[in-house]
Amino acid sequence: MTSQITRLTVLISGSGTNLEALITACRDDQLPNTHIVRVVSNRKAAYGLVRAQNAGIATRYHNLVEYKKRYPDSVNEAREEYDKDLARLVLEDEPHLVVCAGWMHILSPQFLEPLEAAKIPVINLHPALPGAYNGANAIERAHQDWIDGQITTTGIMIHKVISEVDMGSPILVQEIPFEKGVDEDIEALKERIHKNEWKLIVAGTGLAIQELWAEKTRKETEPKTHEKPLG
Question: Percent of the chain scored above 70 by pLDDT?
Fold first, then answer.
């Protein structure tokens, strides 16, 4: 792991249990030299904001409703302007990495392109295997397919974020087999998945940090090319 300080921005929408795992990992050096600079939520009542404040981390509520009021005739325009401002908000903190930890808002190119230009990767935790159950309600859809006898295993992954929902390159994947006599109760399945998420988000974030610093080092040490003089 790098000796340089890594600055994280974490995006959340809910209770923040995955955020809590990251906070603990930063504090206990599971993610050495890593500092969460801000937690952003698109939901005012998200308890993850309280978790962040209790840990002394700056927070921000970024409200899509206000943009819908500003652009009542175009939901797409409202979302695009929301994402542009979200990108500006994130870039102000100069993070090295953005982690989506239960962020329930599809990020458009208006957000992703400014971060890509700034060389800031965005990663996401998704409760499904690569290519399976992209988007919302992934656990519920996988559970129903298991009940119907179509699958025997589900999983979770950390992946890079691109404009196609949950289709970015996987960083870390974990399979979770269904358990007969237990997982008929979807709440039991959700609890087991969430407990595994808390470990995977730390491990996946650690891998993303290693990758970004390795890339920075490679670019700093590669030979410089010079234009040949004319004539």
Answer: 95
Which candidate in 126, 143, 194, 226 is catalytic? 126
Known catalytic residue at 105:
no
Q: Are 14 and 44 in contact (CB under 8 A)?
A: no
For residues 214 and 30, give the distance between their C-alpha atoms in angstroms, rounded to a whole number: 19
Question: Could you report the per-residue pLDDT of 169-192, keeping only the tens digit for each?
Answer: 999 999 999 999 999 999 999 999
The per-residue pLDDT for range 192-201, each reduced to its tens digit, is: 999 999 999 9
pLDDT at 1 over 50: no
